[in-house]
Specification:
With 395 residues, this protein is an alpha+beta fold. The chain is built from eleven helices and 21 strands. The structure holds FE2/S2 (inorganic) cluster.
């Protein structure tokens, strides 16, 4: 039985009188949710409008939330309304196998072990009779009608991500402070970039101008790819972006690449340390970690040489305001990125905090020499190597 968001809305929708619902709630045993749901289901099942069972109608699906468990990993997610299983899984931070998202490639096959699905989109991909008999469905074309257990393939790390080449539309170029631009690319609806949070992609313009940049957005929005482009001497790609990319309609995206990804099997507290625009892959990791909601605490430490360098300071503060388990520490020191002693001074308080850094997973991203110095300092203070992941950006 699907979980109902509000019983009174459900009752209104299907024509059960509010009074009847209230008297059923009053007459039931306290806490007897199962009995109440069974009563409601009895009244829903026989009803059909226009030949379609009520439980499958769009208006009814809109008010439901169903729980899905994925085997063999045991990961779980909820499907709201008539969202596809694939959309809901991506939003919850799962890395399920998929391709086109529109029912053409067959890569998002999953076997329904228990529960019922409802097809919401037409698919061109033809499942075999044997697959249909085995309960195989396409996750991009089906939603959950009831709670489900499904078997599906999941990516377990960067090695499971296929290299893709996509021509993406330039949606916008906008300033993030004086020295950084937000490049927003949008992939075609039918050819999205499948990647893990924290990974990078190569971006190429006509004429052989290219750059390798971390994706700054979350894999849960695989169509809208964001990149933080920093202006650097001799960087032709950045110059073009700072010029606004006039006349450029698309950028070739090749990726994903890199192993700066979240260890999803760990439940240790997480500390993110970003230096300057090392914030870009860290942002993607944080958004993914929030979607997964498995880490006990998330602590972001963003180090810049002046406060204007923290070009998304308000976003970080809004995370901190909204989430009990998220802490944000902005740190500024004029020479933090060039002077090892200044960096040590900034990191020192972090090393003395609770939970102890040695009990955390640490994700460190920033310009090359700075990241190497910070890495050395953290390891020197007892952080286990296996709990530190470093993304070194071109400086
Ligand atoms: S992702 Fe291609 S058929 Fe579902």
């Amino acid at each position: 039985m699907p979980r109902l968001l509000t019983l009174s809305r459900a009752a209104r929708l299907v024509g059960i009188r509010r009074g009847a619902l209230q008297s059923r709630i009053r007459s039931g045993e306290p806490g007897d949710a199962a009995g109440l749901l069974a009563w409601l289901q009895q009244r829903l099942e026989p009803v059909a409008q226009g030949g379609q069972p009520l439980l499958e109608q769009e208006s009814f699906l809109r008010i439901m939330t169903a729980h899905v468990q994925v085997k063999p990993s045991g990961r779980e997610f909820f499907v709201d309304g008539s969202d596809s299983l694939l959309e809901a899984a991506l939003r919850a931070g799962l890395s399920l196998d998929y391709g086109c998202s529109i029912g053409s490639c067959g890569k998002c096959k999953a076997r329904v072990v228990s529960g019922q699905v409802h097809r919401t989109h037409h698919s061109d991909y033809a499942l075999t009779a044997a697959e249909k008999n085995a309960g195989v469905v396409l996750m991009c074309c089906n939603t959950a009608l009831t709670d489900l257990v499904i078997e599906a393939r999941e990516a377990h790390g960067a090695a499971d991500m296929p290299l893709q080449t996509i021509d993406a539309r330039v949606k916008s170029v906008s300033p993030l402070g004086d020295n950084v631009r937000l490049l927003h690319l949008q992939t075609p609806r039918t050819n999205r970039l499948r990647f893990l949070a924290g990974q990078s992609a190569s971006l190429s313009l006509a004429g052989g101008i290219s750059a390798s940049l971390p994706v700054a957005s979350c894999p849960c929005d695989d169509r809208n790819l964001q990149f933080h482009v920093r202006r650097r001497a001799g960087d032709a790609f950045a110059e073009r972006v700072f010029g606004g990319l006039p006349g450029v309609e698309s950028v070739r995206v090749e990726g994903p690449r890199g192993t700066f990804v979240l260890n999803e099997d760990s439940h240790r507290p997480i500390v993110f340390i970003a230096g300057e625009s090392g914030f870009a892959p860290v942002k993607s990791l944080i958004e993914h970690a929030m979607a997964l909601d498995t880490a006990e605490t998330l602590h972001l430490c963003w180090i810049t040489s002046d406060r204007h360098g923290r070009y998304l300071d308000n976003l970080c503060r809004s995370w901190s305001d909204a989430l009990d388990n998220f802490r944000y520490t902005p740190l500024t020191a004029k020479d933090a990125l060039s002077d090892e002693h200044a960096l040590q001074g900034l990191l020192q308080p972090l090393l003395q905090e609770q939970p102890r850094l040695a009990d955390c997973d640490v994700y460190l991203a920033g310009p090359g020499p700075w990241a190497s110095a910070a890495e050395f300092h953290l390891l020197d203070h007892g952080l286990p190597r296996a709990q530190l992941l470093v993304d070194t950006l071109e400086s």
